[in-house]
Design goal:
201 residues; alpha/beta; Maf protein; seven-stranded mixed beta sheet; 6 helices; 7 strands
Length: 201
């Protein structure tokens, strides 16, 4: 029996794995890429997200170059941006509070770069963007959200798939992109590279 192409997800995010499973894709391996994620001087959010995704995909693919056929390697990076400002992944309450107060009552952009190295070591990438509008948050809203701890490790200090959904007035673009992986773009990348994807051509 023929063995199908192997797929490595170059991300430690459980959300990305869940999203892939949602469209019937189960990576054979999860291998996070350990790279510096500091933006370059004057690097804009869109370019930053795409660059990191491509660097992650290349790094993990290079570790498997001796495999034949080479596995497909899928990587992604999500950036929350207010204008040209890239918001950090919140690891403490001070950072999280600052992010939430900045997002309060305004729109912001979520960019996800998605990169794929195929079985012939070719790199392809796409960028998804979604505009998100947050209601004006009261001090109590912020305090309550910080207490639930969902913000920890999240870009922009919120998870749209959790309690923060109550703060979101509207989105324009891909919802799965805001969660962390734009599924339409992923499916198009994989299908265009010859990887079998549910949903037809």
């Amino acid at each position: 029996m023929a063995v199908g192409p192997r797929l490595i997800l170059a991300s430690a995010s459980p959300r990305r794995l869940e999203l892939l499973n949602q469209i019937g894709i189960s990576p054979d391996m999860v291998e996070p890429a350990d790279i510096a994620e500091t933006p370059k001087r004057r690097e804009l959010p869109r370019a930053h997200a795409r660059r990191l995704a491509e660097e992650k995909a290349r790094l993990v693919a290079a570790k498997h170059e001796s495999n034949r056929p080479c596995p497909y390697v899928l990587a992604a990076d999500t950036v929350v941006a207010c204008g040209r400002r890239i918001l950090p992944k919140a690891e403490d309450e001070i950072t999280a509070r600052g992010c939430l107060e900045l997002l309060s009552g305004r729109s912001h952009m979520v960019f996800t770069g998605v990169a794929l190295v195929d079985s012939e070591s070719r790199l392809r990438s796409r960028l998804a963007s979604t505009r998100v509008v947050v209601k004006r948050l009261s001090a109590q809203d912020v305090d309550d959200y910080l207490a639930c701890d969902e913000w920890r490790g999240k870009a922009g200090a919120y998870a749209i798939q959790g309690r923060a959904a109550a703060f979101i007035k509207s989105i324009n673009g891909s919802y799965s992109n805001v969660v962390g992986l734009p599924l339409y773009d992923v499916a198009q990348l994989l299908r265009g590279s010859g990887f079998p994807v549910w949903g037809g051509a």
